[in-house]
Design goal:
The model has no long low-confidence stretch (mean pLDDT 87). The protein has 90 residues and is mainly α. The protein has 2 domains: 44 residues; 45 residues. Keywords: Membrane, Transmembrane, Transmembrane helix.
Amino acid sequence: MEKVTLTKLYEVLAQKIGRSEAECLTYYVDVKIKDGLNTKIEILATKEDVHALRNEVKDNTISMQKWLMGTFITLVIMILGLYAAILLKH
């Protein structure tokens, strides 16, 4: 497929629809392309964004590990208490 530049597009359109209309149309296409690129660039995450997100995930992971360990220790104590209650009952 042949690569079409704005200049080439202008030349082809100028022959078919006239110079003024071709200039307006190529200007419109150029503006739309630049707006589309600017919109996509705004959506991209920067290295700082990714680094901050990694830190948040790391902090949340550590917090979740603490809660999991606390829950595990609580369950072990509860099970030991149940066994002690059964053994002391007899």
